[in-house]
Inverse folding.
């Protein structure tokens, strides 16, 4: 067999193997189905219920328990708004924040890590020292400071959450880059005179994809959690927009009289976090099966 | 070892300075002063207020004043709790928060290490799956969900424990806050311990220990635990940060008079000095703890000293 | 007979099916002799002795008979094995850098053996341990005794491993590629040391290696392994002068020779080692063999006696 062929076949079967392993992982498969359902519900939220997310139902209790005749499947909140629709609109915000902020962290982390790992030497040393120092900072409090000083703006939330989640990503990417840099095909590219940036974007980044995808899957729930945390404290998403954190916060205040206000959004948040974690773990095991 | 200690302390100080600086200039860059949201004040009164809070000097002077004051343990007056300085708030709140936090950390370490070690030694057993499943729950269900749920079940429905409050520090009032605070950390520590113990138990030096005919108890306790628990030691730094962060929301939920509650109120009321003071205090705490953890690590892992 | 292994078969259960690492292997070791075992990496050399030592990975099972001084030791409980491992027979491993516990001083790692098996006090155990460090040639043994493994070079660590394995004066020392991870200059010293200790202490030794050169002058008999099976057994001399299995021949040809500078590039046996998850019906070396015949692909050659102390598993009458 010719070596190049072997390389290609090995490369392809690696991803195929990974997919097979992932689909054999029941927890991951169930999680993907559940998460997919939540995403679809969130996307089609306005068409699924006769009620709007910000208009009260004057003909029903404030708050009112679940009522199927009025299509208030999850009940209504203290302002008489339908909780089912609000939970799904909360899903939109929470998922969007999760994905966008993770994307921000991905962008920063991958660029930073790949640069440090690829350049090596002194630069790498300094860049990683900075990461070490940043690691030991209480980030949540910085995000809160940002929110307090600059107002509670949804875009600021994306940026702030993304900007605090990139450190681990940078470390992973740097480690991978260093190990890949030593491989021949990079040296070959170098020898032909391909520029540093091209090498980073054409060769190194595609090759660190596996661990990056795993870590991304695990960052999304992290960000969703952080956003919910901020919103729970009243420092995140503001009315009339809502997110799971906001809903849970409202629910917790009235849990003795109207527990549904707490339970429905809490269940949605917990299921989503579970799913992302199981999918992340499943992906990791699928891509790097040595632990089994 | 001494050089290592000094070097670590040497890097902790700039970190703290960095935090203070960033926080300070962020505050000064923030649009609008602390009193903007109130009604418009006559100019002479506003000038008075600015002078009282030192806001009339140039920024760099304010910065150095702030630094010097911090070194004296003075974080300035609170904008909202008019009769209190930030330092007052911190000193009244800290003992309460510390009690919760320490208990939660200790609980997390003991339960997490124990469960994780057993799970690792009995890999793929029913116990292992149970521990890992529970840990997943602990990680996936955030404490601000867990806390109200537990309060609902044990406080409201079963009436076993008080729903909220501090009760002057009575044990019954501490149980739920400590457990909800510790739960995610128990989960992390258990997972971490399990992973690292599984790896250690598969390592070559454990094979050597077994080949020497040592009994399994000695193999685990003398040979595996020390290396296996090192990651837990290094996790203590981040764990402290997590516990402190968690305490903010737990104190708010259970209405506990700790620093966290002042912090949240300060944040909601844009009480800048309180927010800044608490953040800097927490940062100092976290950095100090990280330092201590690093030193313990260096003490436990003989390889660190030569590096 | 010190150790008698009969029909040892070791398998690993993996997600992708069974791995047949050791297949129906039989051999024996006489007291005081030095047995060499060679074969490419992955041919099952290590797993034979892991099975014997009771050190198989969790997914592995071993079947067959292993008699140590006439007593069955395969399938003993861990507690029973612990009265033998490190006492009657010891093993040292390929990678001295990771075989010692990095968190414990050499002192503790040595004395604990004597405390556990000989019931010695810490003082006596220390004295005995330091004597052994001297024996294996560790300079400044008293000082070094208190150090941590990372303060030793690779060669020194392997010496420590050897000293540690000799603490209870075992009758058998298994050295699994003890020099593979070391510098070339150190390799010869370590091998020499093991051979010398074997002679002086009248201890049987097993030298496992993938490099025939290592055991050329030292072992008495050699087993050649391929695909988890023994394919040839012979005295060292005969093996070198008259290899009977084409695989052995290939191994010999791929040895670097000092006396022959004309062969600039080293010969390597073409092809890949067999897939232990799906061994062929016929000879597992057939796909790589230069003498393959029809029968080789259909029928697996059995290990047969061809002369006194010589066996081979090959359909070919005479290789040379
Ligand atoms: N725990 C395990 N699970 C599956 N296969 C294993 C395991 N341990 C060893 N093997 C396989 O057993 C075969 C023999 O290994 P080994 O005896 O270590 O070879 P060597 O001759 O190099 O010492 C190898 O192909 C290896 O992949
Ligand atoms: Mg081997």
């Amino acid at each position: 067999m010719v070596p190049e062929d072997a390389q290609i076949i090995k490369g392809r079967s690696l991803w195929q193997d990974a997919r097979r392993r992932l689909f054999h992982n029941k927890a991951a498969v169930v999680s993907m189905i559940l998460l997919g359902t939540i995403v679809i519900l969130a996307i089609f939220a306005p068409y699924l219920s006769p009620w709007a997310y910000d208009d009260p139902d004057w003909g029903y209790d404030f708050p009112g328990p679940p009522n199927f005749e009025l299509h208030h499947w999850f009940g209504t909140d203290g302002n008489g708004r339908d909780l089912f629709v609000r939970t799904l609109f909360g899903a939109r915000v929470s998922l969007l924040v999760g994905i966008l902020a993770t994307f921000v962290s991905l962008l920063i982390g991958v660029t930073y890590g790949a640069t440090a790992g690829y350049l090596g030497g002194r630069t790498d040393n300094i860049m990683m020292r900075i990461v070490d120092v940043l690691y030991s900072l209480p980030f949540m409090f910085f995000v809160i400071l940002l929110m307090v000083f600059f107002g509670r703006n949804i875009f600021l939330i994306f940026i702030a959450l993304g900007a605090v989640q990139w450190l681990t990503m940078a470390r992973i990417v740097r480690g991978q880059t260093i190990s890949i840099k030593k491989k021949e095909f990079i040296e070959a590219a170098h020898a032909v005179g391909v520029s540093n940036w091209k090498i980073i974007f054409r060769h190194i980044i595609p090759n660190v994809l596996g661990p990056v995808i795993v870590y991304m899957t695990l960052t999304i729930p992290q960000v969703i959690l952080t956003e919910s945390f901020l919103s729970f404290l009243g420092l995140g998403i503001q009315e009339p927009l809502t997110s799971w954190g906001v809903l849970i916060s409202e629910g917790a205040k009235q849990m003795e009289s109207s527990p549904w206000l707490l339970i429905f959004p809490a269940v949605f948040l917990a299921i989503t976090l579970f799913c992302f974690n199981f999918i992340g773990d499943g992906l990791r095991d699928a891509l790097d099966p040595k632990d089994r | 070892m001494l050089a290592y200690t000094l070097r670590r302390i040497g890097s902790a100080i700039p970190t703290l300075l960095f935090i203070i600086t960033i926080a300070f200039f962020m505050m000064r860059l923030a649009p609008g002063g602390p009193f903007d949201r109130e009604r418009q004040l006559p100019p002479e009164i506003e000038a008075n207020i600015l002078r009282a809070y030192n806001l009339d000097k140039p920024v760099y002077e304010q910065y150095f004043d702030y630094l010097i004051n911090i070194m004296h343990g003075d974080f300035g007056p609170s904008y909202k709790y008019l009769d209190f300085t930030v330092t007052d708030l911190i000193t009244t709140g800290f003992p309460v928060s510390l009690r919760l936090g320490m208990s939660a950390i200790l609980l997390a370490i003991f339960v997490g290490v124990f469960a994780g070690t057993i799970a690792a030694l009995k890999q793929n057993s029913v116990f292992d799956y149970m521990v890992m499943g529970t840990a997943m729950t602990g990680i996936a269900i955030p404490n601000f969900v867990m806390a109200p749920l537990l309060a609902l079940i044990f406080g409201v429905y079963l009436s076993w424990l008080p729903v909220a409050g501090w009760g002057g520090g009575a044990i019954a009032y501490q149980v739920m806050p400590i457990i909800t605070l510790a739960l995610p950390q128990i989960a992390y520590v258990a997972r971490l311990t399990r992973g690292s113990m599984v790896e250690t138990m598969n390592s070559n030096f454990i094979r050597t220990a077994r080949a020497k005919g040592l009994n399994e108890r000695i193999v685990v306790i003398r040979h595996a635990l020390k290396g296996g628990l090192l990651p837990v030691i290094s996790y203590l730094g981040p764990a402290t940060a997590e516990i402190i962060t968690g305490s903010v929301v737990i104190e708010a939920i259970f209405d506990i008079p700790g620093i966290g509650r002042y912090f949240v109120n300060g944040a909601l009321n844009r009480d800048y000095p309180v927010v800044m003071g608490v953040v800097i205090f927490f940062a100092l705490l976290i950095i100090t703890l990280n330092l201590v953890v690093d030193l313990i690590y260096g003490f436990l892992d003989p390889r660190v000293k030569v590096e | 007979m010190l150790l008698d292994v009969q029909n040892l078969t070791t398998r690993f259960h993996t997600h992708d099916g069974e791995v047949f690492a050791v297949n129906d292997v039989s051999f024996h070791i006489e007291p005081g002799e030095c047995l060499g075992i060679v074969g490419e990496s992955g041919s099952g050399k290590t797993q034979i002795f892991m099975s014997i030592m009771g050190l198989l990975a969790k997914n592995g099972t071993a079947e067959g008979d292993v008699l140590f001084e006439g007593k069955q030791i395969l399938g003993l409980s861990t507690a029973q094995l612990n009265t033998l491992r490190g006492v009657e027979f010891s093993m040292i491993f390929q990678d001295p850098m990771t075989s010692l516990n990095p968190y414990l001083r050499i002192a503790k790692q040595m004395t604990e053996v004597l405390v556990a098996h000989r019931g010695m006090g810490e003082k006596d155990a220390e004295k005995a341990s330091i004597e052994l460090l001297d024996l294996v040639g560790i300079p400044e043994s008293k000082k070094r005794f208190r150090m941590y493994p990372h303060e030793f070079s690779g060669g020194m660590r392997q010496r420590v491993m050897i000293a540690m394995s000799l603490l209870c004066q075992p009758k058998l020392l298994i050295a699994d590629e003890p020099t593979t991870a070391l510098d070339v200059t150190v390799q010869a010293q370590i091998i020499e040391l093991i051979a010398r200790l074997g002679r002086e202490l009248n201890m049987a030794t097993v030298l496992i290696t993938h490099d025939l050169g290592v055991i050329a002058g030292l072992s008495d008999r050699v087993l050649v392994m391929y695909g988890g099976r023994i394919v040839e057994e012979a005295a060292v001399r005969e093996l070198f002068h008259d290899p009977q299995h084409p695989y052995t021949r290939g191994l010999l040809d791929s040895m670097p020779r000092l006396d022959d500078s004309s062969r600039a590039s080293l010969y390597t046996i073409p092809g890949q080692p067999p897939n232990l998850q799906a061994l062929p019906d016929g000879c597992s070396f057939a796909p790589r063999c230069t003498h393959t015949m029809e029968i080789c692909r259909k029928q697996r050659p059995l290990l047969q006696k061809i002369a006194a102390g010589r066996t081979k598993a090959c359909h070919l009458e005479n290789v040379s």
In short: The two ends of chain A are 30 Å apart (CA to CA). The mean pLDDT of chain A is 79. Chain A is about 75% helix and 0% strand. The CA atoms of residues 27 and 169 of chain A lie 25 Å apart.
